[in-house]
Amino acid sequence: MTAGRRLLKHRTPLVVCFAFLLGSAPKALAHAILVRSTPAQHAVEHGPSLSISLHYNSRIDARRCSLTLTNAAGKPLPLVLQTPASPAELDALAQGLTPGAYMLHWQALATDGHITRGEIPFTVQ
Ligand SMILES: [Cu+2]
């Protein structure tokens, strides 16, 4: 009885671990989460041209992702999408940037069909 109880005590955290691995972990990993970016959040960059590169934790469908750059007034500015260096990356080129505050809006479609989105504020000197 004592041995059985001890075994049960030891088993409980394992069950919790398995439930986490089977339930939440694969779903969370399948979503496209931004791992790092250029520009980084609140970065100060030099213009007038800027190479934009967003790195995700998983493969994304680049054809169905969107990237929008807006200036301080909220006006969208042209972006030229570049061929990504990896399937987990979104690359673009912005040109003619004058000093000021900008916001990069991204939306990514992961291979599991889920969409994630975010914003990266930055400044051009
Ligand atoms: Cu997902």
Task: Give the biggest beta sheet.
Answer: 5 strands, mixed
**Helix share bin:** 10-25%
Q: State the total count of DSSP E strands.
A: 9
What is the element string, with H for helices and E for strands?
Answer: HEEEEEEEEE
Radius of gyration based on Cα positions:
21 Å
Measured by DSSP, the beta-strand proportion falls in 35-45%
Unreliable spans: 7-27
- The total count of helices amounts to 1
Bound molecules: copper (II) ion
Termini separation comes to 72 Å
**Overall pLDDT metric:** 84
Strand order of the largest sheet: 2-9-8-4-5
Shape descriptor: elongated
Structural class: alpha+beta
Structure overview:
This protein is of the alpha+beta class. The protein has one helix and nine strands. The chain has one helix at residues 2-30, and strands spanning 34-38, 44-45, 50-56, 66-71, 76-77, 79-82, 89-94, 100-109, 115-124. Strands 2-9-8-4-5 form a five-stranded mixed sheet, with no helix packed on it. The chain has a four-stranded antiparallel sheet with strand order 1-3-7-6, with no helix packed on it. A hairpin with a 4-residue loop joins strand 4 (66-71) and strand 5 (76-77). The termini are far apart. The structure holds copper (II) ion. Copper (II) ion is lined by residues 27, 30-31, 110, 112, 114.
